[in-house]
Amino acid sequence: MRLIKLFLSVIFLLGISFNANAVTIKWLGLAQDDSAHKEDIDAAIADWEAKTGHEVKWQYMAGPDLKLKLPTMLQSDDAPHLFYSWGGGVMFDQADAGFLQDISAMVPDSYLENLSPAAADAFTYKGERVGLPNLFNQVVFWYNKDLTEKAGVDPSKVVMWNDLLEVVKDIKDAGITPICVGGKNKWPIHFYWTLLHVRNGGKAAFFDALENGGWDREEYIKSGYEFQQLVDLEPFQDGFMAVEYGDASAAFGNGECALHLMGSWDYNGAKRRSTSGEGIPDDRMGTFQFPMTENGKGNPSDTLGGINGWLVSKNAPKEAVDFLMHYISMKYQSMGAKSGAYMPIYKGAETEMGNRFFKQQALNVANSTFHSIFWDQYLGRDIGEVVNDVSVELATKDITPEEACQRVQEAWEFNQ
Amino acid sequence: MIKKNITSAFVEKYSTIIIFLVPALTLFTVFVVMPIFEAAYFSFYRWNGMGAPEKYVGFKNYAFLFKNGIFLNALKNNFWIIFVSLFIQLPFALFLALFLANNFRGAAVFRSLFFLPYILAEIVASLIWVYIYKGDYGLVGAIWGLFGADAPWITADKEWALTAILIVVVWKYFGIHMMIMISGLQGISKEVIEAAKIDGAGPVTTALRIKIPILWPTITLSIFLSTLGSLQLFDLIMPLTMGGPSNVTHSMVTYLYDFGVGRMRLGFGSAISVVIFIICFVVALIYQTTILKDKGYN
User: Fold this and answer.
1) Do A239 and B135 touch (CB under 8 A)?
2) N or C: chain B end with fewer CB closer than 10 Å?
3) Which residues, given as ranges, of chain A have pLDDT below 70?
4) Cβ contact, residue pair A392, B244, below 8 Å
5) pLDDT at position A365
6) For the purposes of burial, counting CB atoms within 10 Å of the CB of B274, is it exposed (0-12), middle (13-18) or buried (19 or more)?
7) Domains, chain B, ranges and CATH?
């Protein structure tokens, strides 16, 4: 009897010690319960909790709120262990402030070899790995074939900037709104100006400006003039400055305009926001890369988009990193790819992509020599927002291309 | 012994004051006074809100602020908001109050109707107007459509966007001032009004010579609340225009939010908040020492 009591006590104590070792990982991201992305997140949590006995608490926050609240959250005792990031300047600031953890030693090379080379080091800063990439996206022109055919144009043949201008003119002449854009949010307009920078200046000019200044260089001023060539055609829908991205996305999904320059996420977004909930059928929709400019120094195949992922906060337990590697793995990346939620980072998972647009965009990024991260993210909030501001003011012709570049240069100097 | 008596008398006299004052004073100090001084301190740094501020820049944030065209425009916009509040909103509220202070049939319905916009949360009210102003599916669009014309997108137009905000400001807040004035008017002794009538004063003369002068202390309170509210205007503007198009409709506070908090320039944002605080403080001080003093409030 005594032996049985002793045995039970040992089991009980072992149980307590087992529970005491269980950790709770706080994971903060953008996926709501009804989003396509949540499916693989839920599956990864359930599998890992069953395997390890640890707990993962998912916390949702909308993107703009997350960006604003993170600095305070990361300085509190209740900081999330893992949180969503767009990388770039904001991440650099977080790392400089000591909010992030160097996880280099916890992530073996054998794991990193499985990630797309273009993205593997996107979440490193000053030689330290502070997070892992999860997905990437690209900004392309989406077009509505019904409307472009009605206008008698074939946007898939757009190669040069002048081709785009001609297509826009023809669409407008046919009485169709050429382009939808959510000017109220500003960032959708910055895609135009910064993609022109990518074409005119290329990778070398961008990193030179980042290091030494010179945001008012000739190539970038040229971008402003070219953007205003498009603006002069009045290509955007009426009242575009009072329209938010969501409404512009819905308008494209409803077939109210022929083109929409937007990231990969808008494939699902435009469908979901459309009145029918189904948007434009896939076979009546096409995409084309942002056109090349005359005498541009960039590579026509270079791309603009995001490499998004997860950062590890300084007080996160090592189990958080284990979980992150568990999540960013073939099984869940394949799920995400298959459901069309995103374009995966994990090598081989892209074969699961059933979405032909995503397949094409994955190929575009793989073929590019420079996948430029969204400028309003990469340059940090302060300079990035100036880029957004001046892009809008170029679209409304409130400033000259020279003034726009000068404003960005001044913002850069202000931060030196 | 004498000392002990003095102490106990002191405790007896001031214990209630101390018991009630200390908690309130502590809260006021922690949540109002300290943040003011902290903001003043941060305003001399370039700081993104992460970690402790380290890069001292002296008055550079202030210098940048006062040569920034968008901020100067925001100041101008605040002036217009105050102007419209004082010279359109308050007279309109007074005009309605003079009518609705009388208890005629249906007066309560009209009072409730006019007060309704004030009950709505600022964000809700603003979102309603976002849809009203839409040029395609909004009310403005529908009205223009009746005449077969394409409606203007008022909030997208740099010339009209501020006017659109001013209309919403008047609509949203005239009700509360009307109610304040009605309560003031209903406090006027009936005998005074009767005496005026007996002396041959018509409704207009009674309003101008009797009611408004008696109501003046209430009106000055409305002026004060309206002015400070206008200086702090934020949550009506954000959903309507977000300060756009091209940053032409920022108030000082939306400018602070966008260019300070939103861009993670908390040092610069602190400089803006200090300037707003000084402006509000000076306005309140002038008001207290002039208008309210004349009326014997001090």
Assistant:
1) yes
2) N
3) 1-20
4) yes
5) 86
6) buried
7) 59-294 (1.10.3720.10)
CB A328 within 8 A of CB A346: yes
Predicted confidence (pLDDT) per residue in B227-239, tens digit = 999 999 999 999 9
A241–B244 CB contact, under 8 Å? yes
The CA-atom distances, in angstroms, between A115 and each of A108, A332, B150 are 12, 14, 52
pLDDT score of A35? 74
Name all domains of chain A by residue range, CATH numbers in brackets: 21-137+306-372 (3.40.190.10), 138-303+375-414 (3.40.190.10)
Half-sphere exposure of A391 (CA within 13 A, CB side): 25
Angle between helices A245-253 and A266-273 (to 10 degrees): 80
Cβ distance B48 to A93 less than 8 Å, yes or no, reads yes
Q: Which residues of B touch A99 (CB under 8 A)?
A: 50
Which one of B48, B129, B168, B242 would you mutate to disrupt binding with A, by most A Cβ within 10 Å of its Cβ? Answer: B48
Element holding A281 (H helix, E strand): none
Which residues of chain B lie closer than 8 angstroms to A70, CB-CB? Answer: none
Q: Which residues of chain A neighbour B263 with C-beta distances below 8 Å?
A: 381-382, 385
**A31 and B CB contact within 8 Å:** no
Closest by CA to A309, choosing from A328, A329, A322, A335, is A328
Bridge partners, B121 (sequence order): none
The rounded radius of gyration (Å) of the Cα atoms in chain A is 24
Chain-chain contact of A241 with B246 (C-beta, under 8 angstroms): yes
Flag whether residue A18 sits within 8 Å of chain B, measured between CB atoms.
Answer: no
Say what the ipTM of the complex is: 0.78
What string of DSSP letters covers chain B? -HHHHHHHHHHHHHHHHHHHHHHHHHHHIIIIIHHHHHHHHHTTEE--SSSS--EE-TTHHHHHHHT-HHHHHHHHHHHHHHHHIIIIIHHHHHHHHHHHTS--TTHHHHHHHHHHHHHS-HHHHHHHHHHHH-SSSSHHHHHHHHTT-PPP-GGG-TTTHHHHHHHHHHHHHHHHHHHHHHHHHHTS-HHHHHHHHHTT--HHHIIIIIIHHHHHHHHHHHHHHHHHHHHT--TTHHHHTTT-STTTT--HHHHIIIIIITTT-HHHHHHHHHHHHHHHHHHHHHHIIIIIHHTT--
Percent of chain B scoring above 90 in pLDDT: 61
Give the closest of B153, B156, B263 to A381, CB-based. B263
User: What distance in Å separates the CA atoms of residue B242 and residue B236, rounded to the nearest whole number?
Assistant: 9
Tell me the two tokens of residue B90: 């308050």
Report the alpha-carbon distance of residue A260 to residue A252 in Å, rounded. Answer: 7
Nearest to B242 among A96, A184, A239 (CB): A184
- Torsion angles phi and psi, residue A298, rounded to 5: -80, 175
B242 touches chain A (CB under 8 A): yes
